Amino acid sequence: MVVFYEVPTNTDISYTVIASGYADYTGSVNIAPGEYGWVNVEMAEPVLTFIVKDRETGVGIANAYVYLRDGNHQMLMQLGITDSNGILTLSGLTLEPGEYYFDASASGYEVLLLGYPFTVTDSSPITATITLELQKGFVLPPT
After folding, report:
1. CA distances from 102 to 10, 60, 137 (A)
2. What is the pTM of this model?
3. Per-residue pLDDT tens for 48-93?
């Protein structure tokens, strides 16, 4: 709970609640003269969401792989595989401060290398929504 007192009245007051290990919560409150106000805040785990979609159609690509590279373009890890809607959600992902890239690949599409540059400024869990668009490419015939 956030309590407001001795603040200007009849005006929107913006606030941000920050708690270690949770996503920041931002909102505003307007308090009438002579009153005090409070806001119940539900803190949520930080979530990093990837949306991998077809560049031409905008449709999500199921079973696409999402990768992480460091600032020197070295592969660090596969982060996961998208669901049937082309979405991969990770909670609580932390990285050391530095430069990173998110890549994606999927069957029937060109690999997206160094597709999304991302800067980490501190070791807090990452909260973001990142869209990666893949271009259809040469598809090998089944063997």
Report:
1. 45, 17, 19
2. 0.67
3. 999 999 999 999 999 999 999 998 989 899 999 999 999 999 988 8
